[in-house]
């Protein structure tokens, strides 16, 4: 299949298709070269699209909010699937449980995590307020088991629907997803389509109070208004990566236009003209400093994608 044929296929299915799409406009770091193809399917077209890409041997990756990725300056070969148009939330009796204290909601993967949290507050559903202020989509949060303040998204997940590379839909229960600290075993090629989240009933004003406390705490500790991709490295056991980086003397260190945040050393900031190359070099320098000083090898939390 040529790209022209793929374009015809997409137009006939009402799928927005773009060629040579700059990825810098789709990432929170505002970094990333062009993707050969960018695809914006909706719920009814995604299965057939994935099946077609697989059949035609066109490689693809999936992106939600682009808030935990570094895309290389050389861009992405093949296709990028965006989930932003698969973003519904359903709260109805079909998903109710026998337990009067809990309620389940159905959420599609491209829905913004903060939109779900707002709905939960409004309807008195507790369990997600610790994820306050984490940007990005529900799919991205599940893929990386996002968390903070002792909360992790895995704790509220009942099941997940995936689109498999052959276009089939697979349902996994939470225990099959292999959640660990900032990771899951959802393999590349499988796309999270939707999830059922189960939450505990509580008074909306109590949930809101906790939410506001978490947001304020986050704003006081993290450079949330700057261009970043969140924490660059995972925390090694029993110690914060940010503390190791700060104690290795790296706070404020710069390479090109990328800077180790002076507020939280595990956040690297794009000061405007930063590149992926600069970012990767700074990661190398910081890792080496931490290894030399503490003998600890830091593992990246952000996903580096691209050719
Ligand atoms: C200011 C700031 C603060 C942050 N604070 C936190 C925090 O407190 N805790 C925390 O855990 N994270 C934090 N992050 C990181 C990030 O926001 C989260 O990891 C978020 O859940 C990523 O979601 P996303 O949709 O942006 O994922 P993306 O960046 O789009 O993708 C991340 C990974 O998930 C995969 N993915 C995305 N969608 C799907 C899907 N539908 N199916 C399969 N795979 C998928 C991608 O392929 C990629 O490998 C922060 C980031 C920023 C910028």
From TrEMBL:
It is an enzyme of class 1 (oxidoreductase). Pfam families: FAD_binding_4, MurB_C. The keyword Kinase does not apply. The active site is at 182, 231 (proton donor), 301. Its cofactor is FAD. Its main location: cytoplasm. It catalyses: UDP-N-acetyl-alpha-D-muramate + NADP(+) = UDP-N-acetyl-3-O-(1-carboxyvinyl)-alpha-D-glucosamine + NADPH + H(+). One of its GO terms (cellular component) is cytosol. InterPro entries: FAD-bd_PCMH, FAD-bd_PCMH-like_sf, FAD-bd_PCMH_sub1, FAD-bd_PCMH_sub2, MurB, MurB_C, MurB_C_sf, Oxid_FAD_bind_N. GO terms for biological process: cell division; cell wall organization; peptidoglycan biosynthetic process; regulation of cell shape. Residues 30-202 form the FAD-binding PCMH-type domain. It is found in: Cytoplasm. Pathway: Cell wall biogenesis; peptidoglycan biosynthesis. Keywords: Cell cycle, Cell division, Cell shape, Cell wall biogenesis/degradation, Cytoplasm, FAD, Flavoprotein, NADP, Oxidoreductase, Peptidoglycan synthesis. Its EC number is 1.3.1.98. One of its GO terms (molecular function) is FAD binding. PROSITE patterns: FAD_PCMH (PS51387). Cell wall formation. Belongs to the MurB family. This is UDP-N-acetylenolpyruvoylglucosamine reductase.
